[in-house]
Design goal:
Blueprint lengths: L5 H11 L26 H4 L2 H4 L3 E7 L5 H14 L3 E7 L2 H14 L5 E4 L4 H7 L6 H7 L8 H6 L1 E2 L2 E2 L2 E2 L5 E6 H6 L17 H9 L2 E2 L15 E3 L8 H11 L10 H15 L7 H7 L1 H6 L5 E5 L3 H7 L4 E4 L9 E3 L4 E4 L6 H11 L2 H9 L11 H10 L5 H9 L1 E3 L7 H16 L5 H15 L1
Parallel strand pairs: 1-2, 1-3, 12-14
Antiparallel strand pairs: 3-13, 4-5, 6-13, 7-10, 7-11, 8-9
Length: 454
């Protein structure tokens, strides 16, 4: 697969999901140089005196517990500009957030401002929960200049924006540097490759880092697979953090699970656990959680997104670093996603909610979220703030940025009935990773569930 520059690669997103995304603008905001950008205003610069007099309380609902510190700092900065708007921040775990959102939307009690997400956007937009932002943007002369155009495209339907871009993320390998040093094994780097036939150099590395109680790895005679003390790689039932990337790197659509190439990729992940024995059992991963299992110090590598760095920074008691995803048969690929912030269409204090959402898209909020290491800001002017923050913590986060230079990128399926489809996917991937079905059976079962929803 031909390597693409950062923004040429981003353009591939449209080809992969052209039936789902709005067309790109004539020029990505992120492509423009400093002389082309007007460095979009902060809330104070955009607002008139009358806007600052807006009063009231609004509820802001998110699923990202790891972002709370950065969000609270941003809310404090917002309140210096808007002291009369009280923001009540509420969070729920990811798997509870969406069910609660559905309940609140149905009851007309949704939060005034809520976090939107790529593959749930269609459902939320079709429910009418998200207020169209384009008329408000035009009314106030609000500038979106500097935001990555692809994040804007994700939340645009029929030339109307429904969520303010906040951040931009992708996936990499995160590895336990201390564990590699302990066993004197070279760190994962840009030369790493995988394939579903023999696993490539990626499998070889995972085998060298899978160690039994006697200090022997998988490649050594006398290795004891029943007494493993550390694993080379962790497989998790996570679409964006894990298996979607392997599917894409094997050359197939992440929404077609019965395709032979998709089946190959998913079978490889099962084989890592049960054939090659370089990954822990799914019961253990589910019991602890993938991030906590890595933080325990007994896993050498796993794939995840930059959104998890804040969590790892608090939980890992060892030196950990990041590296590019391994290159697959069809090149190196990564899912890219962007969180958006929406105003509830039935909010009783819509103007206050809109002022807060404008702040969430402003330079002020973007700088805070980058400088606190919370997220990669949607505005690429503040990406270096994020990289610099993690460098100060001893972590090189630049491979996440580098993925845009060396990888093909794609976005998640933006399809109707996502809740039902995702439930079918999750259930059957669980069965696969617990060795109760093979990848072909998994693909056939998901395809059958999809057919019922079409």
């Amino acid at each position: 697969m031909k390597k693409a520059t950062r923004f040429t690669a981003l353009a591939c997103t449209v080809l992969l999901v052209s039936s789902m995304l709005a067309a790109c603008g004539p020029k990505d905001a992120a492509e423009s140089g400093p002389e082309d950008q007007d460095t979009s205003q902060t809330a104070s610069e955009e607002s008139t005196g009358s806007e600052k007099d807006i009063e009231g309380s609004i509820r802001y609902f998110t699923w990202t517990e790891e972002q709370v510190d950065g969000i609270n700092e941003s809310i404090q900065a917002f309140n210096k500009e808007y002291p009369n708007i009280k923001v009540d921040l509420q969070t729920a775990p990811w798997d509870q957030y969406w069910s609660k959102m559905q309940t609140e939307i149905a009851g007309g009690t949704c939060a005034d401002v809520f976090m939107n997400q790529t593959w749930y956007f269609k459902t939320l937009q079709e429910s009418g929960a998200a207020e169209p932002l384009t008329p408000l943007i035009e009314r106030d002369g609000y500038s979106l200049e500097g935001h990555n155009q692809k994040v804007i495209d994700i939340y645009t339907e029929a030339d109307t924006l429904y969520a303010m871009p906040q951040d931009w993320d992708c996936e990499c390998i995160v590895y336990n540097k201390d564990l590699f040093d302990k066993y004197d094994v070279p760190y994962p780097d840009e030369t790493l490759q995988w394939n579903p036939t023999d696993g490539g150099s990626f499998l070889e590395l995972a085998q060298k880092m899978t160690i039994d109680k006697n200090g022997k790895n998988v490649t050594e005679e006398g290795f004891d697979p029943d007494n493993i003390v550390s694993y080379g790689f962790l497989v998790q039932n996570s679409n964006n953090a894990c298996y979607w990337n392997f599917i894409a790197m094997n050359g197939r659509d992440v929404n077609k699970y019965d395709d032979p190439k998709t089946v190959e990729a998913m079978q490889f992940l099962q084989d890592l656990m049960f054939k090659y024995k370089v990954a822990p059992q799914m019961a253990s991963v589910q019991s602890m959680g993938a991030d906590a299992m890595f933080a325990s110090g007994n896993v050498a590598m796993y794939t995840t997104g930059n959104w998890v760095l804040s969590t790892l920074g608090k939980t890992c008691g060892f030196d950990w670093q990041t590296a590019l995803l391994p290159e697959g048969p069809e090149g190196r690929c990564t899912l890219v996603n962007g969180i958006g912030q929406s105003v509830y269409s039935k909010s009783k204090n819509k103007e206050a909610a809109w002022e807060f959402v404008k702040w969430l898209g402003s330079d002020g909020h973007q700088e805070i979220m980058g400088s606190t290491g919370t997220v990669f800001p949607s505005k690429n002017d503040y990406w270096d703030n994020y990289i610099d923050y993690w460098a100060g913590k001893g972590v090189d986060a630049s491979p996440f940025r580098d993925m845009f230079d060396v990888a093909e990128v794609y976005t998640a399926p933006m399809v109707p009935h996502w809740n039902e489809k995702n439930a079918a996917i999750t259930k059957n991937v669980d069965l696969l990773l617990m060795d109760k079905i093979n990848a072909q059976e998994m693909g056939d079962a998901i395809a059958a569930e999809y057919a019922k929803l079409e």
